[in-house]
Predict the structure.
Amino acid sequence: MTEPTSVVSTMTLVMQSVDISSTAHVMNAMDVLGQVHSFYDSAWTKLVCVIGVFGFIWPLIVSYFQNKSIDKTEENIILKIKEQQEENKKYSDKLEKIEIDFKNKTKEIDDKTKEIDVKTKEIDDKTKEIDVKTKEIDVKTKEIDVKAKKIEKQLIKIRALIWHMECFNKKESDPDQSISSGFVSILAYKILCDDDGIERVTNIITDVLSKKPNLSPKTLNDLEKIIKALKDMGTEIQQIKDNISNIQSFYDEQQKTKQI
């Protein structure tokens, strides 16, 4: 059985050992805390220094790159402006050339227009001259027509008289020729509207027919034409109407004779 004294001694030694061990641990913990504090203190100091340096350098870096970017942008803008100015100059040159061409063309057109105006005036003057000449020609033509009609009328009158004389001269010797000549003379007097001439010729023909001549078929055909021509006249002269009636009677008798 162990003695109380030895137990106490043992316990004391244990306690001492525990105290020494605890003290050692406390001292170690204090060292660690000191080292940690020293580390963080140094780290914060470095961090503050780094932040301070970075905070001073970063704006410079940003400013540098911003200035560089601005310079680049300015260069691009200046380049674009120069390019645009060159393009504008090209367009300006083109517009100027177009304007010059337009002015030249306009001048050419104006010159051509003036030439056309001059030519038109010349043509108008020539046209007026032609109109005047045409009017003069028309007047001369009318005068010529009047003279021609007078001449034609005179010629017809001469022919009417010639055939009238032939009708009269042949009434005894050649009744056929007398009536044929009288027919031509009647047509001429009809054109001249000479009722007096027609009356005198029909008097001769009536006188020839009153002697009951033996006429040829051609002369009878001429008699038929004379009757038609005289009726177409629509004369109001009684002597001519009587002569037409006598000629018609002779012609009808000859037609009946032929039928028998």
About this structure: Residues 144-259 form one domain. Helices lie at 4-169, 175-192, 195-209, 217-233, 238-259. The radius of gyration is 76 Å. The CA atoms of residues 95 and 101 lie 10 Å apart.
